[in-house]
Write a structure and sequence with these properties.
The chain has eight helices and no strands.
Length: about 240
């Protein structure tokens, strides 16, 4: 039940991200810090936890699945949802209704593999599951924010924005459920999710951070990596 409950928590974070767009009571600058912290934490989780565990499960063949996961999202973003920003989408003149649904489809692929990653972690150990949940949770609010904002940018109302955020949450839960049902495919699911996470962190989140002036947000990425290392150290000694 724990991966399902934490998957639900991650899904609700996406709904909360949608509420930020609908109600507009949250400073946008705060979301940039979530992006930076989440990018560092996610990169640390991928390279220090997910890929080593995938290699242990499936040998060097796991690296082919890591590459496949990366290329899957690369293909989706450049065919379904090219040129969108992983943050608030405000280009009303570029974001028609068809384009907004294409962006949402790309984000749903992200969300699905987030769920795969959470469940994969718990199938290996509670410690890894908690690490991956936190890594993913940190970018869930910005992801829900993005899903809702593309609907607003396309001229659609609050209901469509919240529906988009809700669909991202459903996709996350679907990923958790699929991985738990097909747990024998852990040696495929975990490296696939790792490849997707690399793309999300390095190709979606970090470029958004690099667009901001100054060094502060860049340093927050290092803070995210440091948090991952510290949490990993503590969980290894506290949770089997």
């Amino acid at each position: 039940m724990l991966p399902l409950l934490l998957g639900l928590t991650a899904a609700l974070a996406e709904v909360f991200g949608g509420l930020l767009i609908v109600r507009r009571h949250w400073p946008r600058r705060h979301l940039q810090y979530f992006l930076a912290l989440g990018a560092g934490f996610l990169l640390g989780a991928v390279f220090l936890e997910m890929i080593p565990q995938a290699l242990r499960l499936a040998g060097t063949g796991a690296l082919s699945w890591v590459l496949a996961g990366y290329l899957l999202v690369h293909l989706a973003e450049h065919t379904l949802s090219s040129h969108f920003h992983f943050g608030e989408e405000v280009h009303h003149d570029e974001m028609g209704s068809g384009r907004s649904y294409a962006v949402l489809a790309g984000l749903m692929i992200h969300a699905f593999f987030d769920g795969i990653a959470i469940a994969s972690g718990f199938l290996i150990s509670h410690a890894l599951g908690l690490v991956l949940f936190l890594a993913i949770f940190l970018h869930k609010i910005p992801e829900g924010f993005t899903g809702a904002s593309v609907m607003v940018a396309a001229g659609q109302g609050p209901r469509a924005a919240m529906t988009a955020a809700g669909l991202l949450g459903v996709s996350t839960m679907l990923g958790v459920s699929v991985m738990l049902l097909f747990s024998t495919q852990l040696g495929v699911g975990l490296p696939l999710a790792a490849g997707v996470c690399i793309y999300v962190a390095a190709s979606d989140l970090v470029p958004e951070i690099n667009q901001q002036p100054g060094i502060r947000l860049a340093l927050v990425v290092f803070v995210g990596v440091g948090m991952l290392v510290g949490l990993r150290y503590w969980l290894e000694r506290s949770i089997p």
